[in-house]
Structures are given as C-alpha cells and as structure tokens.
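Good morning N.,

You mentioned wanting to compare the apo and holo forms, so I went ahead and generated the holo version with zinc ion. This is what I fed in:
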Amino acid sequence: MFGYFGYNLQEIKMLVDVAIPNTKFDYLTYETDLDLHIGDLVLVPLKKKSKYGIVVATNVKRELPGIKKIQRLVEKSFISPKLLSLYKWISSYYVSYLGEVLKQAFPPKVLKRYEYIKKEYEKPQKIMEPAPTYQQSNAINRILYWIRRNTFKVFLLFGITGSGKTEVYLKVVAEILNQGGRALILVPEISMTPLLLKRFTERFGKDTVAIHSALTEKERRQTWYAIKNGVYKVIIGPRSAIFLPITDLKIIIVDEEHDHSYKEHQMVVKYNARDVAIVRAKMENIVVVLGSATPQIESYYNAGIGKYELLVLKERIDSRPLPSVEIVDLKQEGGKFISQKFETAIEEVIEKNEQAILFLNRRGFAPSLLCPNCGYVVRCPYCKLPLVYHRGIDRESVSVLSCHTCDYKTDYFKNCPKCGKSTLLYRGAGTQRIEEIVKKIIKSLNYNDKQDRDSLILRLDRDTVRKRGEAEKILKKFEEQKAKILLGTQLVTKGFDFPNVTFVGIVNADTILNLPDFRGSERTFQILTQVAGRAGRGDKPGRVLIQTYHPQQYSILFSQVQNYPKFYAQEMKLRKELNFPPFSRLILIRLSDKDEEVLWNEAKQIYKLLGDIGGIKIFGPNQSFYYKIRNNYRVYILIKAPIKFEHRKLKFLRQIKLNKVKLEIDVDPIDVF
Ligand code: ADP
Ligand code: ZN
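and this is what came out, ligand included:
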C-alpha cells in the first residue's frame, strides 16, 4: 500500500488532539501516521511516561514545535463521539479541564482494559404487576409517546410519596426493553434504595445491573466494560453513572431529582448529575424523567414555563390518606428534647406493635460541651468549632470528642480544662442522646414481653454504618420488624416503604433551617415532607409530629399540610426579590489557605479580576460559614450571573498563578457558604 495515492508515509502524518485523564489541561497535540478517529483510546508519551488518552480531534491544523508521536492505538471507538461531546460540555460548563472530567468519568484504571464478568441475577420472578391507575396510565402514555418519536423531552413526574412513581418507571422501562432500548436510572444512593433495586431486579432479572458503593475497584471496572459491551439493559447507579457508555439509551430516569447527592461536592468537577442528564438527553435525542415528591424549585419552575412537561400523580395508591401532621412548639416544653406528645406517640407504637421512624439531623450524644463556671466551650484546635461529644457505647469503648468538620478526635475529659473547677455540661442533643432517652421511655412501659427492650430501637447514622453493609443490615432488621423504632439522621428520610410505620417523629426541625443558606427553607420543606411520607404507607393511617422552635416558619407550616405548590409560590417570591435561582445563576468561588493574610490578598485580587467581566454581580470576598477547617482559612466570592452566562469567561481563573492558595469553582452550588 506504500505510496498508494502517490504520497509516502512521511506525508500522511496527521496531528491529533488527545485528552488525558487526571491532567490539568483539555488536550495535548500529537503526531501520528495511524488512521485515528474521535473516541479512540491511544497510548501517548507524557513527561517520560506513557499515558492512556482519548482522541478528541483529528486533522488538527496547528503548527507546534516539538510535537511527540502517538505510541499506539489501544482500542478503536473506545468512547462514542456523542459521549465525548458530553464530557466536553461538562468541562466547559463546570469551568474545569477535560482531563479532570475524564478522571471522574472513568472508574480508576479502567483504561488498562479488563475482561468483564457477567453477574447473574435470579430469573425474573413471576410477580403480580399491578394494573396502572388512571393517572399512572396517563404518565406512562405521555412518556412512551415521546420515546417513540426519538426526541429530546424532559418530564417532571411530580407525585407525593407512595403515589406510584416507581411503578411508572417500571412500566416505561419494560416497554423500552421490548423495543430493544436501554434505560439508565439514577438514584441518590443505592444502599439507601434497596427497595427500588429489588423491584427492578424482580422485573428485569439479569438485564439489570446496579452500581453499588460496595463494589471493589476491580468489580467497578468489570461492570463498566460489561455495560459498554451491552451486557445489561437496565443500569441503576448513583450520580457518576451519568458518565457511563450506554448504547441504544432511550431514557434517563432521575429518581428523587431534588436530592443533593446528585451534586459532586469533593472532586474538582462539581457537576450535578440531574442537570448533566438533561444535557446528555438533549445530545442523544432521548427522554428524561425527573421524579420527586418535592421537586427542586428550579425544576418546578422549568415545568411551569413549559421547558419540562409536568406529570402529576395526585393521590396515594388506594387513596391511602396522607399522614396527619402536628407541630409541637419546643418553646413550650421547658427545654425537653422529647415532648410529652412525642413520648406518648412512641408508647402507643410499642403497645400496638407498630413501628416508628425518628429523625434528627445531628450525630453524636451532644453537639457541644460547656463549662457552667467559666463559660468555656471545648473546640477543635484546627477549626475552632465546638467538638461533638460521642459517648462510648459500652464499658470497653471510650467516649470521644470529635470535630464533624475535619474529623479530629480526642479522648473525652470530664473537667473544664480552663478553670478546672467544674464538670463540663452537655449542650443540645444528637441521635445518641435521643436514643438513650427513647430507651428510657421504652423501659418504663408496663407490658409483658420477652424481647430485650433495648433491641427495640435501631440507630442509623454515619456512626453506626461505618462498616460496609451495615446500613443494609439495620434496614433489614427493621423491615423484618425485629425492632420497632428506627432513629437516625438524613439516612432515614430516603425512599423506604415500611408498611407498618405509623408514626414519624422529627425531633428538631430547626437543624436544617439554621444553615445560612438561601436553600435553607427549601431543604427543610423537602426533608420534612420526605420523612413524613414514610408514615402510613400500609393499611393503617400515619401520624407525624414535628418539634421546632419556629412553628410559624413557612417551610414548616406548608410541610404540615404537605402542600408543595403553596410552598413553591411563597419561596418564589423571596427568590425573585433577592434575585436567586431560578432567576439567576450562581457560581461560587471558594478559596482556602493556611496563611490568613495571603488568602485575603489573593481573594481581593480575584475579586478585582472578576470586575472585568461584564454583566455579572460579584459579592465578597466573605468569610465562609466554616471559616477555618483543619488550620485552613476559607473565604468565598459569590457570582450572580444571568441565566445565559458563558462560563468559559471564567476559565482564566483556572490558569492564574495563585500564591499556592487553593481555588475551587462551584457552578450551581448547593451550599452557598
Ligand atoms: P412512589 O415511588 O411514588 O413512592 P410506588 O411506585 O413505590 O410509589 O408505589 C407505592 C406502593 O403502591 C408500592 O407498594 C407499589 O407496589 C404500589 N402500587 C403502585 N402502583 C400501583 C397500582 N397501580 N396498583 C396497586 N398498587 C400499586
Ligand atoms: Zn476540626
């Protein structure tokens, strides 16, 4: 073939751009005489090492000195050009480098090629599939109509808890599989949604795969390859599953779309999988279904202006009534953590052999320790925040004081280290303390039983689920009714369906409200409504008690009547007044450094540079809510930009030399402090 068109090999050399995972650039240009295409996996030299990379452009016309040669082609069409466009979009929207996006897009070391294994699930059981209700049919038909048209479309499936959303997903997915398509279902956290997973595997058996946090790195890679090779048709995963290479994808379902775990908090590219899902669907001309009982304000707004189509499931299946919700004003309770009403409700549950879920968004025994003599509060030496007291669970384990921000730990001490005159007092209550109080309540009950009373309560928070599989164990015990009370943090608010739960108690609703954040009310409404929705899912009606010091706050009042549209209307007034999303776009720049002075100087410098960008409002630099974490000072600058703002205007921030100060850019931040 040499010289076929009258060229020799020297002349058909081509320049290509290659993106390399885990680098701080978009791509590097290389030379090659191979026939390469966009999406190919290649091996390239980089700083005396060989690296895997993905071809992102061919036939590049660019004169560059010292261009290196591609070493070899590893795999053709490793990633589809469409998926690559998505990765590129993510990098530009979230003001990051393509190399950083690729790092987060692939499981570790996946580029080194691994054979995949096929995991077998049991055959689908013949299960009773309920006939859809009128409202469910309507939703299913609307979604399938758009799937048949192969067009981009976003639905917001707004249905209260227990209204049959999951059943809608199942029916739609079944039809897609009939037509030879595939479905991606995003869930906030698999270990917290065992029920959803069970229902999907029951119906679709070995076509289903779930990406668990319990998978090893190797299993993760194998699963990735299996999905790429089309082994599975129904893929269920957490936020990172949005990066997966899935062919014939027809639908992306985002269950509990308001959930904050869709947002990446830690890594450089702080994407929101819900929003990326919509962009991916647009690029692939497919359908997205966002499901929630408490949509994020922005999503409901988009449905209101016709960008999304709203599908409503108004009633609970079998017209099961919503639980009755009562508010207890803690100001009237004389400093008690558990009011009389709350106590009575717990007693009734135990006596009637029913179950209860108790929620408190705070771990540990007491959130701070105070000296009654000199007023000293025990604080983290690195963050200056009060240390949380964690009591040892038995004689052997020691009590510790721990910083919930940086994880600093120290042994508990009884006496005030400052004045030495008094024993430190516990202030406030965390789940551990509430557990103790509830155990006392149960102990004092007068009834005949053989079971050890302490085993009637289970605690589910980060402290009790440190080991893998521990959360599943606790939930299973509760499901099998071996315990009557499930007490915990946010973990208990997820979409469980325990039919025997008749009482849900919110120990203190103010823990969420008190964050200095424009989403405080929204978050409070969502969490209260979600956790209240766990009550009365079976035949027996449910009851909810919300304890608070702010009984008049609108998010608490509207969650009492479980009226999302009313809450939305009220919240939108404030958002409009303050020009917060959905009326603007927020971009947060977080800066941190050990040297306070250097940090503020750099922050002011950046503030100035931002001033050159027209059309945006810049606030700050301000101290972050957690001003000092692990000896690092933290400040932030908030940008309010118009909806159509071009994010590439901020890319220069990634390139400027900062006196070693760490800079993070958070587009559409969840926490604004
Ligand atoms: P959601 O996802 O909105 O919380 P689910 O889909 O889990 O609601 O439905 C709640 C309960 O009602 C589940 O136990 C489910 O099996 C049952 N269910 C759903 N749709 C129907 C139906 N059409 N007929 C009878 N039962 C149904
Ligand atoms: Zn700390």
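The two ends are 64 Å apart (CA to CA).

Happy to go through it together on a call whenever suits you.

Best,
F.
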